[in-house]
Amino acid sequence: MLSRWGHDPHALVQVLRETQALTHWLPRALLTHIAQALNLPLAQVEGVATFYRFFHTRPVGRLRVLFSDNITDRLLGSEALLSRLCERLGVAPGQPDVQGRFSVDRCSCTGLCDQGPALLINHHQVITRLDTARVDALAALMLSEVPADQWPADWFHVDNKVLRADVLLSGLSADAPTLPEVLAREPQALIDELARAGLRGRGGAGFPTARKWQACRDADTSTSGPLRCVVCNADEGEPGTFKDRALLSEHADAVFDGMTIAARAIGAQQGWLYLRGEYRYLLPQLQAVLERRRASGLLGANAAGLAGFDFDIRIHLGAGAYVCGEESALIESLEGRRGTPRIRPPFPVERGYLGRPTVVNNVETFCAVAHIARRGGAWWAGIGTASSTGTKIHSVSGDCERPGLYEYPLGTPIAQILADCGAMDAQAVQVGGPSGACVPVSGFHRRIAFDDVPSAGAFMVFNPSRDLFEVARHFARFFAHESCGLCTPCRVGTELVVRRLDKLALVRGAGRGSAFDLQRLHELDALLHSGTHCGLGSSACNPLRDTLAHFGEVYASRTATPQFEPEFDLDAELSAARRVTGRTDAGAHLHTEHKP
Ligand SMILES: Cc1cc2nc3c(=O)[nH]c(=O)nc-3n(C[C@H](O)[C@H](O)[C@H](O)COP(=O)(O)O)c2cc1C
Ligand code: SF4
Q: Going by fewer Cβ within 10 Å, which terminus of the chain is more open, N or C?
């Protein structure tokens, strides 16, 4: 396997992933062997192995079950199902059974919120639509050690339920110009068409795509050599988002067309699809599409019949780290390192993968490129609004009758999406995932657009029975868990937010919340918003900020104490000592100690 990867140190993440698929976990001796074989320091290999959630440096079960832990899975009862499975198997979460047969744990959102609760088996297969019957049957199969490939096939079924298709989800029309016809145009003309379209990236930040490509095309390559790269960001880690999953499953050719057009426009030779580890089950079909494209001459030497256009696409699998969706962290991961966001400038368009000018775009952006290149920039600019052109795909989940995929022109009001998905009594919608915005009823007239409510794709609905404080606390835990730890305000700040919310939630404080705690939360929000290195830290308090602003009552009911109280009751902590010594007098109580 090491020779198949050419003993390339940049392939470290892939080598670890494939090794672990055989050995289940990564003992130190194995890491030492890999370090020697790739000529890397052991510390670097261990640093990578401990960074990614899907790598295990301690023993785990031979069969590993990971429950998706997005709030939508929880609303559908995932916690009770996890407890039930653990009980049936006789294990505690995160602990393998004594024979090392299996372990059960949680992972971040698996991108299956429209058909949850869901879980991952060996980071490789997904089981959707869990209920008690399915969990009981699963436990029985696991206990009798029936291999996963003999489990009922319908358990693994993933639906891409398209409930409103516009141009992207309808697919390319049969009479559209072919890719070779598109690529025969001047590279600059391809960029100009995107500029005319006004296309802005669909991955969250909304950066103008033509400007990004132009910067990459114009980048100085005197120090990096002439090579350039195109990367498709299919990390889709934002909880509640699953539109890229559907595009990759149903419209992979359009995505690869978009990447090939980008390569032609900027002069790239190499393409990467960075596929999140949770979508490992899509790998065989994506490889098959790439093989078919190579066979038909759309990839490889002189691709699409263009002399000298040698462009091919490889797939890199992530290993369970949300921060790797950040484009510079993604490039670090592609190079075989921990997914730590880089200091910018230089930006990836100047120095990206292996120092080469690199364009990173979202899956949906590349799909839009494939359409724009065929139908023209003016056509795309005619959809949506003047400043937010084209359509946007929404991954709708939560408290609604019809969860699934909905594509609308940008500028569509939230109320329309709610009506269409059957969510007439929503009290709030989380648009764009935890790092997006929590919009209350008073904001349902607002529109999904870059200049109103921008969205990276998630649309999670909460009805009035949901406690939005608990939703915000859940998202706070997500960010604390996913912080890469590079900068202190994020590493420590996200933990402090969790502890403070736990105190209000009565987990630690037992009614000890006060206005002082809310003030501290506001301060932490300000600190994280301004003092962190990447977008993860700066958006980590968005759910807190929005729920404090719009749903203050759910915090007020938890801040009944007029003055500050410490997180835990010092006097209560001494009760064991009082029992042992048999003391019940006032002097044995902390709060009377300093009284005259
Ligand atoms: C913590 C974090 C996670 C991100 N995750 C993703 C992701 O999963 N997919 C994505 O396309 N962009 C993600 N982004 C945005 C990327 O950094 C980048 O802006 C985007 O891929 C550019 O593509 P676009 O211009 O087509 O939007 C993330 C950003 C941050 C800060
Ligand atoms: S803000 Fe958080 S995730 Fe981003 S670099 Fe700093 S520690 Fe890492």
A: C
